[in-house]
Each structure stands twice: as structure tokens, then as C-alpha cells.
Design a protein that fits this description.
Number of strands: 12
Strand content: 35-45%
Structural class: mainly beta
Order of helices and strands: EEEEEHEEEEEEHEH
Largest sheet: 6 strands, antiparallel, barrel
Radius of gyration: 17 Å
């Protein structure tokens, strides 16, 4: 479980996609300032919002590295990655940690796209689009997780709109310590809808069908 509060902006050192004829997972190695005690074998790390399991970790020349595997299931729903890209990182919460953002599972639902960025004083007003099937889960002043960052929805398109769009305010601190500050119109992001909204919709849909 995560909070959506980014702890480090890491760098993808390697991203190895398997050949189509070979049934293997993709391999990603990331350099980070996260402490090694958070990168033990089997530990969970949210990488741009995707909960992944540490399979290897090491320290070289004072820099920490960890390796994760991405299954075909993960690759189907997340944005593509390449070596050299920056990536938002958050280690799993402990029972002693504060919940500063909102409950984030690290189970990405799909891909959103940045449509527009407008600077407003010290903030950035960003407008995103997302798959239409998420319209029941995104509401004004609700929570959404984009690239692993917990954000508040400022406004959202009407339920009957042909395209689901919503806006979020990104303060300068968030832009500086995450990869959201580097985004340009047309860029893709991993999106996770609010966990509580997901379960509520499932509860209501089951009861409607009974």
C-alpha cells in the first residue's frame, strides 16, 4: 500500500523487453536515493504508480540500484518505458507512516494523457484525458493517482461527455520533485482511480444486478 507521496525521482538505467517469441517478463533497473533498507529482496516499490517487487538490489559508488520484473499483464496497462527516463518512486508504507496523500494500491488501471498545461502563479493547471470507463470514478475534489502522484481533481467533464477530461493543480514543489514537471501536451501517464470509489462502484453494481 502507498500514499501517492513521491519519495525520490529515480532514473531508469536499463529497460529490457523480451523478444516476442520468448515468454519472459520485462526487466527494469532503476537508480535511486531510496535507502537500501527499503529495497530488500521482495520489497514493494511504486514505480510511476506501478507496484513492483524488488528482485535484486545493490550499491555502486554510493548510488543505490534495484531491479524489478514487469509481467505481460502490467505491460498491457501501463505507459511504455525506455532507458534514461525519470521515474517517480515510493517505497511501501509501514504501519508507522502517516497517510499524507490517499490510499494507493499500486494497481494501475490504464493510461491517461496530458492535454494542456497552463501556468497560474506558482502552479500549473493541467488537463488530462482518460478512458471513458473511468468516468464513474473521477469526481470534483476527489482523488486520483497519476504516475504515482496523489492529486486532487479540480474539475471533470460531464458524465455524458464524449471524452472524459479532468483538471488538476500541480504546485511548484510537486513539479520539482516528480516527473510531472517535465510533462508536455500529448505525454502519457499511468492512472489509478480512487481505491474507495472502485470498491463502492463494485458494491453498487453487484447489488443492482441482484
Amino acid at each position: 500500500m502507498f500514499s501517492g507521496i513521491i519519495k525520490d525521482l529515480g532514473n531508469i538505467e536499463q529497460f529490457i523487453m523480451p523478444q516476442p517469441e520468448i515468454k519472459q517478463d520485462a526487466i527494469m533497473q532503476v537508480s535511486t536515493k531510496l535507502p537500501m533498507e527499503k529495497l530488500t529482496l521482495g520489497a514493494s516499490v511504486a514505480c510511476d504508480g506501478v507496484c513492483l517487487t524488488v528482485t535484486e538490489s545493490d550499491t555502486k559508488d554510493g548510488v543505490n540500484f534495484f531491479t524489478v520484473q514487469l509481467s505481460h499483464e502490467s505491460l498491457k496497462v501501463i505507459k511504455p518505458y525506455i532507458a534514461g527516463a525519470t521515474i517517480n518512486l515510493e517505497a511501501a508504507l509501514t504501519l508507522a507512516d502517516g497517510l499524507d496523500g490517499h490510499l494507493v494500491s499500486g494497481h494501475v488501471d490504464g493510461i491517461a494523457q496530458l492535454l494542456d498545461v497552463q501556468h497560474d502563479a506558482g502552479s500549473r493547471q493541467m488537463v488530462f484525458s482518460a478512458p471513458q470507463q473511468f468516468s464513474a470514478f473521477i469526481m470534483r475534489k476527489g482523488s486520483v493517482c497519476l504516475n504515482g502522484v496523489s492529486l486532487t481533481v479540480n474539475d471533470v467533464s460531464a458524465p455524458d461527455a464524449k471524452q472524459l477530461t479532468f483538471g488538476c493543480n500541480i504546485i511548484s514543489h510537486t513539479a520539482n520533485v516528480t516527473n510531472l514537471g517535465d510533462l508536455q501536451a500529448g505525454d502519457s501517464l499511468n492512472i489509478e482511480i480512487d481505491l474507495l470509489a472502485r470498491y463502492m462502484e463494485r458494491f453498487l453494481s453487484v447489488n443492482r444486478s441482484n
